[in-house]
Amino acid sequence: MSQNNRKLHREAALTAGRPAPHIPPRQTKAHRIKDDAEAIATAHELAREFATDAVARDRERRLPIAEIEHFSQSGLWAITVPKEYGGAGVSAVTLAEVTAIISAADSSIGQIPQNHFYMVEALRLAGTEEQKQHYFERILDGDRLGNAFTEIGTKTPVDYKTNFRNEGRRLLLNGQKFYATGSLFAHIIVAVAKDDTGRVHIVFIDRATPGLDLFDDWSSFGQRSTGSGTVTFDDVEITPFQVVDHDVVFEKPTPMGPFAQIIHSAVQVGLARGALAEAISYIRAYARPFFELSIEYGYEDPHSIHQIGDVSIRVHAADALLARAGRLLDLATADPNDKTVAEASIAVAEVKALGTEVAQLAANKLVELGGARSTLENYGLDRFWRNARTHSLHDPVRWKYHHIGNYYLNGLLPPRHGAL
Question: A Pfam family for this UniProt protein (predicted)?
Answer without folding.
Answer: Acyl-CoA_dh_2
